[in-house]
Amino acid sequence: MHESAFQIFVNALLANNFVLAMFLGLCPFLGVSGKLDTAFPMGVATTFVMLVASLCAYGLNLLLSAFHLEFLRLISYIVIIASSVQLVEMVLKKYSPALFRALGIYLPLITTNCAVLGVALFQTAREYDFVQSVTFSVGGGAGFTLALVLMASVRERLQLSNVPDLAQGTALSLMLAGILSLSFMGFAGLGG
Amino acid sequence: MNPSAAKTWDEFMEGVWRQNPVFVMVLGMCPTLAVTVSGINALSMGAATTFVLVCSCALVSLMRSFTPKEVRIAVYIVIIATFVTVVDYAIQAISLALYDALGAFIQLIVVNCIILGRAEAHASKHGPLPAMINAAGMGIGFAIGLLALGVVREILGAGTLFGISLFGAGFQPWVIMVLPPGGFFVLGAWLLFFSWIERRKLRRQSAKQSGKPVEATQNA
Amino acid sequence: MNTDNNPPGPLSTKGGDDGSAAGAASGLVAGPALGRPGGGADSRVIPIAVAQPEVTPPASPTAAMIRTLGLVSSICGLIIVGAYEGTYDAVAANKRIATERAVFKVIPAAKSIAEYVALPAGGIEPKVGAGDTPVAPGAVKFFAAYDAGGKLAGIAAEGGAKGYADTVRIMFGYSPECQCVIGIGVVSMRETPGIGDKILTDRDFLANFNALDAKLKGDLSMLANEVKAVKHGTKTNPWQIDAIAGATITSRAVGKSINDAAQALLPRLVPNLEKLRSKS
Predict the structure, then answer these.
(1) Which of A152, B22, C134, C184 is a good FRET partner for B205, with 20 to 30 A between their CA atoms?
(2) Cβ-nearest to A189 among C28, C33, C249
């Protein structure tokens, strides 16, 4: 694939936003986006894990292809991701306990975040090289954070408005997500 | 129905209705919205997930006595990933077109919260047969949820049902329904619908109660 | 503001307890924590952990953990390898059939195909290993299609480029006689139904590829003119593609995929065409 790093970044951030266009990372998107204060750190933590996962997946893929062990790809990716999350947890606990406490249970849940495994799988399927993979994961993580922050901001506002009881809760979040997704479709073609 | 059969049926139906993963627990959202652009895709994804659910829960349950607490999550993940790999190859062998349509989401079944949740909450504490029944119920509930979404999106967005054209050539499909925003809207609409039914039920119950003050305690 | 979405089942709110008890222990169960918007999940998870009595079971010995992990890995390894081997033939057959169908579509006279690679240093050779066996980096795969008489009917190759939603993969047929692309087929795409997928059916668009000029420069180093999609209605040269109105991005992807693949393949292929003239 001959996409430039810039194109990949902009695409992953906007036109093919991981959450709003590719449907990855929806569980935390619907679950954590209640407050802006938790949404942003969650997005950053996820971006970091995505970067680590992307690097590991790239290396793993080279290794597995060299030994013709492609059928072990999925299992090795997910084990690496689970381990990376553990690592991130330990590092955060040591160097930033406040952030660690703030994220709470959502940190280990990054393991089951489709976006993280999705990054690894998509970059493998599209046969990105090293630089492309890194920009893809950073762009994807940034897009995830962007969607999360947008959602959290709107939901915080919504708490003060008059929403019919019937729609309260997840139904409302989904409708919101739909509108956000619609607006992001306008970015199609940006970045070449 | 004798008690044990009733209990089994109960366990099965728990996943199908009361704890339906799509409409009640709102889990496994990623594949739910991504692949439900048509009825066939939805059904295939539901079947694949059910297969992985049942097999993983069976193996987890069989191994429950020799799985130390500290490594159990790693063990569950490896088991789930194994069966997802199996399904991945199986679908490739059955139909490349279907494989292409479902795309990366087959492999993303491994991070479907439902499966890990079931393994942790149920399969690790029960024998193989109850675990498989419960898993099957949950899988079928998931498939029903997917089907509900897929059918609506396909009818509105393409004018077909399982590939069979419903409205003839003059139909202008509501294309947005098969695009990402449509997925969000349709699921939101289904949740609204269930919410409305629930409220109506509650209203009826409370109307009955106020009409009959000596009614027995209302069920939770 | 943490109103739970009202679910259809009456036991729904209680039903979460099963998961949350375990969730507290492992910190990893997704169920109750994720489904409800807002922070209500935390308050359900934490109290249950605190309420457990102090009698903690002794930590498992390392040997037990290693034994279990080893056992699980072996079982799972066997299952995966079994599935891979068991489905290998069926999958390979499926892929071969799909490829053949695509090649026959873009080169109508074709009756049989042979797979080749164009090497990075120049020169061509038959491809070793069927189906998805990887090629050396920089090598380009292509198919030589032969008619019923064993004569070269055309060359087919695949190209891919980013479209609107994801990669658009195109198989195109090249005729050495006219040095042009003679047909395309879409191998895979995820474009917008009703808009992007018009590349499958729009007759005017497909007519672009009946004789799309792909001549090489005099020194055979690259294409003389870039194969490119231009705005609908502005096509003036035989190497241009008239894009579908309203589906520019997908049309451009088709053009780019053909261009990139041709640029990589043709300079290495054309000098060696004689080797392919008849089926070896």
Answers:
(1) B22
(2) C249
